[in-house]
Amino acid sequence: MNDLSDVIEADRAHVWHHLTQHKPLETNNPRIIVEGKGMRVWDQSGREFLDAVSGGVWTVNVGYGRTAIADAVHAQLVKMNYFAQSVGSIPGSEFAKKLIEKMPGLSRVYYVNSGSEANEKVFKMVRQIAHKKYDGKKTKILYRDRDYHGSTLATMSAGGQDERVMQFGPLAPDFVRVPHCMEYRAQWDLTGAEYGRKAADAIEEVILREGPETVGLLCLEPVTAGGGVIEAPEGYWERVQEICKKYDVLLHIDEVVCGMGRTGKWFGYQHYGIKPDFVTMAKGVASGYAAIAITVTTEEVFELFKDDPSDKLNYFRDISTFGGCTAGPAAALANMQIIEDENLLDNTTKMGERMLANLNKLAEKHEVIGDVRGKGLFVGAELVVDRETKEPAEEAKVGAVVAACNARGVIIGATNRSVPGFNNTLCFSPALIATADDIDEICNAVDEALTEVFGG
Length: 456
Fold this sequence. Notes:
Belongs to the class-III pyridoxal-phosphate-dependent aminotransferase family. By secondary structure, the chain is an alpha/beta fold. The chain folds into 2 domains: 142 residues, Aspartate Aminotransferase, domain 1 (Alpha-Beta Complex), CATH 3.90.1150.10; 274 residues, Aspartate Aminotransferase, domain 2 (3-Layer(aba) Sandwich), CATH 3.40.640.10. It is built from 14 helices and 18 strands. Strands 4-12-11-10-7-5-6 form a 7-stranded mixed β-sheet, sandwiched between helices. Strands 13, 14, 15, 17 and 18 form a 5-stranded antiparallel β-sheet that branches. Helix 8 packs parallel to helix 9 and helix 12 packs parallel to helix 14. The longest helix has 22 residues. It is globular.
């Protein structure tokens, strides 16, 4: 690596990093990732790491160094880089068509630039529908305990991870929480499909308590991400769909993390046979090669905003400046082509099964692993002090496992700054290109790290 001392000092002096307490950086160097290739990245010292979290936040789905995506973006930007999304673009139209082909029942694509913004657009649409169709009623938005939907004030108001919203209040009104669906941390003495149906019935209880005439939307992650990598039990999603139809509540599936192949299908909701009214996506849509996020909805919702042109207030009066940047859809088209050409959905399923098997095998050796769960290459291992009581492992020790893996050249994640008392799940989301050797290397590092931190 070249001498990067000037870069390091510029970073220390001027860059405000996300999710970072900067006091230690007064005396320690910030980490700078300089290069990436495949699933490997290199820092400023030239040290190599296997990235098991796809860019730190579940984003680089097809890996680093993809010249096909970079070339597509370059060619598009030279030809036409930007115009406001009030008009069309060639890559915007082409990607919308290709995306909708993967999402039967949905038809309309709204471009924005972040997952938080994509989710907030849904909330605005629902609020406007309430005024256009329900005399200003049905404005309430239901969200689930442990789910996360973004970092704006509105999306934090729909956030089920209390540590992420602390010190940011007061939050927006008319956002109402429903119980989580995590069987490992069961709220009822039930298991399997019975637990799944009960967790869904709890949503109905909230709707009835609030008044069905006031509830416009239910917003859920298909697999809860930062709240602990939680997949709903059998029976949950079918019942959720029934409840939404019964009470005329629109269903919004937040695919910001799970979308574009992460779970082994194009979208996480497609595992469960449900038909959402809204789907939002961001991170893996272009694998981080360009900023892009999307709100997708049905023709029925879209038609609600087509009205008398003489009324200047009856259409969806919204704009996202960088929704008009053509780099995003150009990158997304190339990204999707790679997933198709390299059969990465199948690889995700196979490598996800290998990772689950490896971690379950580690659970036989390390009693600190209380539960292993996940879908595709989106996997979590919850650490506990005691398997009988399920007392969560200390957050500091979970962090020590992450650090010990890092010391071995493997970058993994963990729930943190999320659910008070339950930031105890190791998180894995390697790129969809992961090989068996990559999966084994990740799990071997976890094995050694657990031994170092917890003994055994």
